[in-house]
Amino acid sequence: MSRLPIRARLSLAFAVAMAVVLAATGAFVYFRVQSALDEGISEALDARLRDAVALARTGETGRRADEEGFTTIVGGRISAVPRDRVEGGTRTKGTTVETDLGLRTVLVGTSLADRDEALAELLSQLLVVAPIALLLSSLLGYLLAGAALRPVDTMRAEADAISGSEPGRRLPSGPARDEISRLAATLNQMLGRLERTIERERGFVADASHELRTPLALLKTELELALRTPRTEEELRSAIRSAAAETDRLSRLAEDLLVLAQADEGRLPLRRESLSANDVLGSVREAFAPRAAAAGRSIEAQDADGLVIHADRLRVEQALGNLVDNALRHGAGTISLEAVEENGLVQLHVRDEGPGLTDEFRPHAFERFTRADAARTRGGSGLGLALVAAVAEAHGGAARAAPGRADFWLTVSQD
Structural domain of residue 309, as residue ranges? Predict the structure, then answer.
């Protein structure tokens, strides 16, 4: 049954329903006619019995028969006088009356042959008409099912013709606001989401390819230079250090791309635990302190006053590390790490003494592969802040940048 086409299943269901309706209707008509005939016969016998009782009071006896039935009047009482009995195709009624000449027993009856013949004829007509009606109604149901499913066939043909080379093409919904129209609207919304996803993925691949091209080209150049002769030991060491730096850059870029891809699919792995905000900030400060000192700058971690966060330590430290890296690349002065409680959430801030983001760039700062012009010459990939936003969103929070100053933060829950 489930393997049949929907049109066939609808037609079959309609045929079964019509068969039940026709059977119930036929049975109702048959028994209603039977009841009406029996009621008419009973009334006729009652009238005949009244006439016979009147004759019996005049002293008449004997048996009379005609086309409508028979009347019998006998003197005395007959045992077990039938009040209303059907036997041998005859319906009989009787009674005992007292007259001036004594008791009289009156019996009247009529044949049920005409009634049985009428019912038999009705049954035969129903057995002929019902299958014809069932066949016609099933055919009508098949046609109606086809008409009802025609918009679905149209949508299927249109969906089969839609491809990635024709963005913006949609399924026809029709003028009626019915289930088919709502299905078309839902599918069109899904197509819109898929187009946006495909477009985003295409941009992601294109931008990733662009970002990977530069370090790979530099790495290849350094290795080719290292192979040239003659090369001093110091020149070889310098080439290897440069190649190692580009390898580290590629490794970080690959890790960032993996995290963002997992976040897109809603499966960024998180191992949540209760963490001291002071421990998290201190760990990030220690990790970047040598680099800051080499650049003549310092990193301070403000006391978090016992704040506890419920988060994945690796991911949160990775996000904070990206903010610190951003401050080291593009900021100035002392970098300050601070945890602030607000509305049941904890904001993890990274501040420095630089000017921060421009008003034009700030709304796009946490998008992928978006960089301010000044950052394009400093080796950034445009993924650092996007990763911060992905980690924050995976924790149910968000990433923000303050206007007019270098202050970036992400929010995480306390429990």
Answer: 272-413
Closest CA to 408 of 395, 394, 392: 392
State the Cα–Cα distance between residues 50 and 57, nearest whole angstrom: 11
Q: Is 27 helix (H, G, I), strand (E, B) or coil?
A: helix
Q: Looking up tokens 């088919």, which residue turns up?
A: 180
Beta strands in 40-184 (DSSP E): 62-66, 69-75, 85-87, 90-99, 102-111
Q: What is the pTM of this model?
A: 0.51
- DSSP, collapsed to helix, strand or coil, labels residue 31 as helix
pLDDT tens-digit map of 220-260: 877 777 777 677 778 778 877 777 777 877 777 777 777 77
Do the domain assignments include residue 77?
Answer: yes
The DSSP letter of residue 167 is T
Structure tokens at 204: 């992601």
Q: How many residues does the chain have?
A: 415
Spacing of C-alpha 396 from chain mean position: 24
What count of Cα atoms within 13 Å lies in the side-chain half-sphere of residue 27? 5
Q: What pLDDT is recorded for position 377? A: 40
- State the pLDDT at residue 185: 82
Rounded CA gap, 394 and 268, in Å?
7
Structure tokens at 218: 């530099």
Residue 147 lies in a domain: no
Strand blocks (E) in 257-374: 272-276, 299-301, 308-312, 335-342, 345-351
Residue 212 belongs to a domain with what CATH number? 1.10.287.130
276 shares its domain with 409: yes
Which residues, given as ranges, of the chain have pLDDT below 50?
A: 374-378
Residue 274 DSSP label = E
Q: What is the pLDDT of residue 347?
A: 94
